[in-house]
Amino acid sequence: MNEKLIRLIKIIMLVQARARILARELAEAYETTERTIYRDSQTLSATGLPIINVGHGKGYEIIDRFSMYPLHCTEQEAMAF
């Protein structure tokens, strides 16, 4: 579960930093499958985070002026978070 939480936070940060990033790019960045990224984006969306899939092959983006400040912490600190 800790790995998933860290991955979710990293996904938020990367999608926020790059407009329209593909699931394939996220999967490669976090050494997981595209299917895992799809499930993670559904999880984030269910929590109220305004992340959307713009369309097949167009990627993900965050809408509605959402912003999360960068977290500069160690993996151990992120796991405690």
Number of strands: 2
Low-confidence segments: none
N to C succession of SSEs: HHHEEH
Query: What is the overall number of helices?
Result: 4
Q: Which secondary-structure class do the elements indicate?
A: mainly alpha
Keywords:
two-stranded antiparallel ribbon, mainly alpha, 81 residues
Q: How would you summarize the topology of this molecule?
A:
Layout: H1 2-17, H2 23-29, H3 34-46, E1 51-55, E2 59-62, H4 75-80
Antiparallel strand pairs: 1-2
Please characterize this protein's 3D structure.
Helix content is 52%, strand content 11%. The mean pLDDT is 79. It has a two-stranded antiparallel ribbon. The chain has four helices and two strands; from the N terminus they run αααββα. With 81 residues, the chain is mainly alpha-helical. The longest helix is centred in the N-terminal third of the chain and has 16 residues, at 2-17.
Q: How would you summarize this macromolecular structure in one to three sentences?
A:
By secondary structure, the protein is mostly helical. It is 52% helix and 11% strand.
